[in-house]
Amino acid sequence: MTQRSYWTAVWCGFLVLTIGLGVRQSFGIFLKPISAELNVGRELFSFGTALSMLLMGVIAPFSGRLADRFGSAPTIAGGGAVYVLGMIVTATMHDGFMLILGNLLVGIGLSAATFGPVLGVILRVAPPAKQALAVGICSAGGSFGQFFIVPLAAILQNYFGDWRPTMWALTILALIMIVLPLGLNDRKEIAASKRGSGGSQTTGAALSEAFAQRSFVLLVIGYFVCGFHVAFVGGHLPAYISDKGIGLSLFGVNLSPAELGGWAIGMVGLFNIAGAILWSSMGNRFKRKNLLSTLYLLRSLVFLGFVIAPLSAASVLIFAAALGFLWLGTVPLTTSLVGYIFGPVHVTMLNGIVFMGHQIGSFFGGWGGGRLFDLQGNYDMMWWISIALGLVSAALHYPIVEERLSRPAAMPQPA
Q1: Is residue 403 part of a domain?
Q2: How many distinct structural domains can be found in the chain?
Q3: Is 35 a member of any domain?
């Protein structure tokens, strides 16, 4: 693998995650206008986005298996095509059924065009000494998408005064995802891994081996909490800020509460660009399971500070910056930890299963926020649940055993 092709994969993967996750995270901007147009409460929209994230997780192991079997490039390109179709259905929707259908297609598409398949390529093609940096840079693409695309969606929404033109603009942007996988071809590396002694391990044997390890089960459960946090904050923070009427006026710049919500999500993405790279690079020097415990503990403290501090534009931006530093640092740590323990042959499928735990959490975080808001008229309970779950996840990651599995005629393992 040449240096040139290795960096080509990193930056193509970066852009796939930038667009796919950035556009998906912008859906929180549409919560209030779409709910108002359909004349329903917030639960329907929240349920649609949550179901999308749940399906994304359920399909992820199968998408991972396709990537491990046939290569990541065609898998990611196919996912991008289904994603765009879902965006078109959403942009043309006129009732709750089409809203749910569009979200489901977006979820199916993103299952094949997100962290598992993309980072699987990087783990295969990057030199062992450069894997941590490569995974961190590529993971930061999702954060850059939040920073760039979510505020852009908020600006377009304010400019057009209508959510449909904004959705169409995002749909056109998503088309690029179908072309970018040309730089994510890992078929040679997959073939080389299978020629190694580990290539004889079947899919069933790999699954049995993984679920027999308590550490793998703890990773799946702990990742649930990450998904819960990301879906709740990404899907409901803009509406929360808008409900509270918190805007910003500084140095002649005036942001409405709706715009501040979009910029808050963008701020999360901006600070996580540095966070994703830093947390992944620390994974080379410290045990990743300890870093994950620390990260979830810090998340709970950030949530607690936001809940008890007086709400203002300053507290919103400070919260967004602090949470951003901790936002997706879980991804390179968790993904590389699975690769370290189990090796490269089935890494995308196994990471897909771990990611399914993440997306089950996303379902409850996204849908639960809308459900509790419709029941209680506020998000107070969701903030406290987020604090408690962060503490639980911190405790679950600490006993994980961070060691490579030894097998008879073991396959070559990544550094």
Answers
A1: no
A2: 1
A3: yes
For 378, the domain range is: 3-397
In a domain, 52, yes or no: yes
pTM: 0.79
Domain-located, residue 278: yes
Alpha-carbon gap, residue 147 to 44, rounded angstroms:
27
3-state secondary structure the chain: CCHHHHHHHHHHHHHHHHHHHHHHHHHHHHHHHHHHHHCCCHHHHHHHHHHHHHHHHHHHHHHHHHHHHHCHHHHHHHHHHHHHHHHHHHHCCCCHHHHHHHHHHHHHHHHHCCHHHHHHHHHHHCCHHHHHHHHHHHHHHHHHHHHHHHHHHHHHHHHHCCHHHHHHHHHHHHHHHHCHHHHCCCHHHHHHHHHCHHHHCCHHHHHHHHHCCHHHHHHHHHHHHHHHHHHHHHHHHHHHHHHHCCCEEECCEEECHHHHHHHHHHHHHHHHHHHHHHHHHHCCCCCHHHHHHHHHHHHHHHHHHHHHCCCCHHHHHHHHHHHHHHCCCHHHHHHHHHHHHHCCCCHHHHHHHHHHHHHHHHHHHHHHHHHHHHHHCCCHHHHHHHHHHHHHHHHHHCCCCCCCCCCCCCCCCCC
Domain CATH for 178:
1.20.1250.20
In which residue are the tokens 């598409």 written?
109
pLDDT one digit per residue (tens) for the chain, 415 residues: 445 578 888 899 999 999 998 898 888 788 888 888 888 777 788 888 888 888 888 898 888 888 888 888 899 999 999 999 999 999 998 888 898 999 999 999 998 888 878 888 888 888 877 777 788 888 888 788 878 888 888 888 888 888 899 999 999 999 999 999 988 887 777 777 666 645 567 888 888 988 999 999 999 999 999 999 998 998 888 888 888 887 776 666 677 787 788 788 888 888 988 888 888 888 878 899 999 999 999 999 999 999 999 988 889 889 999 999 998 889 888 988 888 888 777 878 898 899 889 989 988 998 888 889 889 888 999 999 999 999 999 999 999 998 887 765 544 445 4
